[in-house]
Amino acid sequence: SVKGEGRGTVRFFEPAMEAQLQARRQLESELALAVARGEFRLHYQPIVNGRTGEIETFEALIRWQHPVRGLIGPAEFIPLAEQSDLIVGLGQWVIETACADAARWPRPWRVSINVSPSQLRLSDVPAAVAAALERHELDPARMVVEITESVFIQDADAAVVVLNRLRAMGLRLALDDFGTGYSSLSYLQLFKFDKLKIDRTFVRRLGENSDTLTIVRAIVNLAHNLGMHVTAEGVETAGQLAILRALECDQMQGYLFGRPAPEVRIAETDAALMRGPLAAPLVRAAA
Ligand code: C2E
Ligand code: MG
Ligand code: MG
Ligand code: MG
User: The EAL domain covers which part of the protein (predicted)?
Assistant: First the structure.
């Protein structure tokens, strides 16, 4: 504890913060061992064609099967991994596992992986991807890399070089969580992504807020005019789906079509989806 402070000084450090820091240090040291212990899992969530409802891609979403705490979501440990070089080994494991899994799928769906900006800076992601694709004999055209615009904050030129290398290998690049960061529009001039993923904070308000509808329509039109496809994240209701279809959003992802799951299941794919939400007649969004 801190000594030498005057009487009456408020010491925020104890005991709550101390305990929090301790828990965090513990998680960090366990995180360092978790790859070797085989505690990570990839879950896969379908991304469907907005017109036909066919599954086109599965996004790989990491989970940590912690021996004591159970299944932990990425929001709890990815930021921690990003603060050290732990993200490199973890990211390497994701690349390797996603390729191995996709190579065994019963249909040639694409696999979309999330790559952290720090991972891109600290390691040679294109080389790691190339090696994994070759090892598992996976066509590079079947892999998508999702990255947020924060990749451009530190060294934009270096980021563009890496993204171009991935593109040259035949991969697709997606700009994740579009609309939530800073000066999103200026980054669109730096690199032409194959697709934009509209953040689910916009999708959630569709149908409740007419300004949101205007914003989403503008994003879809902007993307299309720049030659990019658009994926809507977090589609949960038939109402949201109807609006997004009317706006000609190219792909949809969300609990309405499927939650992230440890296995890709053919039963929940195309045929079932066509009978489900997408079978509804196309409703025009209010102008
Ligand atoms: P993201 O890439 O934007 O992934 C979409 C998140 O939205 C996932 O959360 C997914 O489960 C959730 N989601 C999908 N549909 C719905 C819906 O209809 N409603 C709601 N409420 N949520 C939905 P998850 O799996 O917790 O992942 C959170 C974030 O963690 C991801 O956001 C991504 O940024 C990061 N992440 C996940 N896996 C990896 C990974 O392998 N590497 C890295 N670097 N980051 C990862
Ligand atoms: Mg993503
Ligand atoms: Mg996203
Ligand atoms: Mg997100």
Answer: 24-274
